[in-house]
Design a protein that fits this description.
The protein is mostly beta strands and 88 residues long. 5% of the residues lie in helices and 41% in strands. It has one helix at 4-7, and strands at residues 12-14, 23-27, 30-34, 40-44, 50-56, 61-66, 70-74.
Length: 88
């Protein structure tokens, strides 16, 4: 599987749940952000090619899994609300 995470598109997350939202998808060399119209808005580039991504915590935290690590990025935008919350 060497290098597979850097060439395949897999994980997808949505932006705010109210109204049209951005699409956040893992792809070659990063997490790609697209507008509701499909325009490429930018790419987040973690230290290694990502395999998957999802929102968690406060809704402004994006978690990215990769071949050798898990990364957490705090963002200024609110993402999709988690389906469940872990209580301690």
């Amino acid at each position: 599987m060497d290098g597979a995470a850097s060439t395949a598109t897999d994980g997808v997350g949505a932006g705010p749940s109210a109204g049209p939202s951005e699409v956040w998808a893992t792809g070659p060399a990063g997490v790609w952000v697209f507008s509701p119209e499909g325009k490429h808005l930018g790419t987040l580039k973690p230290p290694e090619g990502p395999a998957n991504c999802n929102w968690g915590g406060d809704g402004k935290t994006l978690y990215i899994t990769a071949e050798k690590g898990v990364y957490r990025i705090k963002l200024a935008v609110m993402g999709e609300k988690p389906l469940y919350q872990v209580y301690q």
